[in-house]
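== Fold encoding ==
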Amino acid sequence: MYKASGLNDKEQCLRDHSHLVKRIAHQMMTKLPHSVQIDDIIQAGMMGLLDAASRYDEFHGAQFETYATQRIRGAMLDELREADWLPRSLRRDMRRIEQSISRLQQKLGRAPNETEIAADLEVSLAEYQQMLQASRGAQLVYYEDFHGEDNDDFFERFEFASDDNPLELLSDERFRTELVRGIEALPERERWVMAMIYEQDMNLREIGEVLGVGESRVSQLHSQAVARLRSRMKGY
């Protein structure tokens, strides 16, 4: 099936490795806004798999699945960068949530709960949870996002207040230390969700089964956890 110029049978490759595309897509969807359609991500991933099949050279020494995973993720990220997947209204809602969390944290001296945040925003609990659901993962930063090609780049999307280079921020020991503290300070269930998503690469369904809740509830907990962290990390 393999030769130096690539894979002989690309259709067979798609059949054999489509599960890999779907697995990566479902993992990525846990960190993306609700507006992103998984079928679009899978389609982009299949194109990445085809590209991998065309380019793969077994004499490079890498296992095909390892090589294909890189090409699939790259194709999915390219699709996200080209699409308008982060609406301005979504960014506005997340800014409101982060500001509310910051206000309540200072006022209460502890992490506010959902009911308190909803009251501060002057919306019902159901409306607040819908805001969280719609914004699923919208705050997540990929390394590739530091080098966006359009005008709506990293700095506009994530509103860093300083002139620091984002790569320097990530390598700064104080930043990392404060981020770890922020994660440790999260409410227990939100901390579990973050660990299962980012450390164990579990998807929403798997996390929901562990916590005994639905996928939408997992999405809400994830969005709220990231909003807490972004609120805490302002200024770094």
Remarks:
- Confidence is low (pLDDT under 50) at residues 1-6, 139-164.
